[in-house]
Design brief:
The protein is mainly beta. The protein has 3 domains: 88 residues, Immunoglobulins (Immunoglobulin-like, Sandwich), CATH 2.60.40.10; 83 residues, Sandwich (Immunoglobulin-like), CATH 2.60.40.2470; 83 residues, Immunoglobulin-like. Helices cover 12% and strands 51% of the residues. The chain has a 5-stranded mixed β-sheet with strand order 2-8-7-4-5, with no helix packed on it. Strands 10-16-15-12-13 form a 5-stranded mixed β-sheet, with no helix packed on it. The protein has a 4-stranded antiparallel β-sheet with strand order 21-20-23-24, with no helix packed on it. A hairpin with a 2-residue loop joins strand 23 and strand 24. The chain starts with a helix and ends with a helix. The N terminus and C terminus are likely disordered.
């Protein structure tokens, strides 16, 4: 009898348990949370600097997903696809990315991928006029520098210690008019931080504005003649001729004068600037004293002028 009375009680308890299991009011502990990351991959997994890759994923039963790079920066915000999604990236160096999928109960699933960036040195084309790496101009003239770079994260244009363009860009040009010979440097920075340089040298020739003798014209030998000059952009001035080799001091480079004896013949003025030079010649003639004496002698030996009839009487 005792066992027969306990049967109804056990059945009632079992019914109560079954009813409660089907109720929505029973807390869900998440131990069987179905959230999962089915796929997370880059396409392509290796790129060159400046190229892009696409991260793609597929999840199951995720409420939302979060994408981060290796610094912890969140990418894409709330606009990422949940079931499936993609996100385009253009890393400057090899970078690790993480995807987190969040389930209904707060459960999280993680996946990681790496995108490799080829860190080869940037490709650089840097030239002056007529695609040359060495250009020649005169003081006051100008030339154009042109460049094209691929695979760099930074490009600077320098002239000596001066920075002409901090961000020169991957492609550009610049008109320059240096007063003296100058080497221009295009400095590029690769993805790994390595730096490389390309150079264009612009040689600036000095200008000899004038070079003359004073007094000008034929002079008797031995007469002092002043050679007078004016230059622009010269670092030195030198006079060269027969028995003449004179280098002007610094204060006489731009404008100066030097005395020589007439009869010295051809004198060459050489104006030099660093990396180039400019020449100009001046020729001085002298009358021969011997020929002058001979002329006088001929005049002295000439017969007297014939007199008129009145004189003959």
């Amino acid at each position: 009898m005792k066992s027969s009375r306990s049967i109804p009680l056990l059945a009632a308890a079992l019914c109560a348990v079954l009813a409660s299991c089907g109720s929505d009011q029973v807390p869900y502990d998440g131990s069987m949370d179905p959230v999962a990351i089915l796929e997370f991959s880059p396409d392509p997994a290796e790129i060159r600097l400046g190229e892009t890759s696409t991260l793609q994923w597929a999840t199951r039963d995720a409420l939302f997903v979060q994408l981060e790079d290796e610094t912890g920066a969140v990418l894409g915000g709330d606009d990422l696809g949940i079931g499936t999604g993609t996100f385009e990236i253009a890393p400057e160096r090899t970078t690790r990315y993480s995807l987190t999928a969040f389930g209904a109960s707060g459960a999280q699933r993680f996946a990681h991928v790496k995108v490799v960036v080829d860190a080869h040195a940037p490709e650089v084309t840097f030239t002056g006029k007529d695609s040359k790496v060495e250009d020649r101009i005169h003081v006051g003239e100008s030339t154009r520098l042109e460049w094209k770079v691929t695979g760099a994260i930074g490009v600077r244009l320098l002239a000596g210690d001066a920075t002409l363009l901090e961000d020169a860009g991957d492609e550009g040009s610049l008109e320059v008019s240096p007063e003296k010979t100058t080497t221009y440097v295009l400095e590029t920075t690769g993805s790994g931080g390595s730096k490389s340089q390309a150079e264009v040298k612009v040689k600036v020739a000095p200008v000899i504005d004038s070079f003359r003798a004073s007094p000008s014209g034929p002079q008797l030998e031995g007469v002092k003649v002043s050679l007078v000059w004016k230059t622009t952009g010269a670092d030195s001035v030198r006079l060269k001729g027969k028995d003449l080799d004179y280098t002007a001091p610094a204060e006489r480079i731009k404008t100066g004068a030097w005395q020589v004896n007439a009869g010295v013949g051809t004198v060459v003025l050489v104006g030099r600037a660093k990396g180039s030079r400019r020449r100009r010649r001046s020729r001085f003639r002298s009358s021969s004293p011997r020929s002058s004496t001979s002329s006088r002698s001929r005049r002295e030996r000439s017969p007297p002028a014939r007199r008129g009839p009145a004189a003959s009487r």
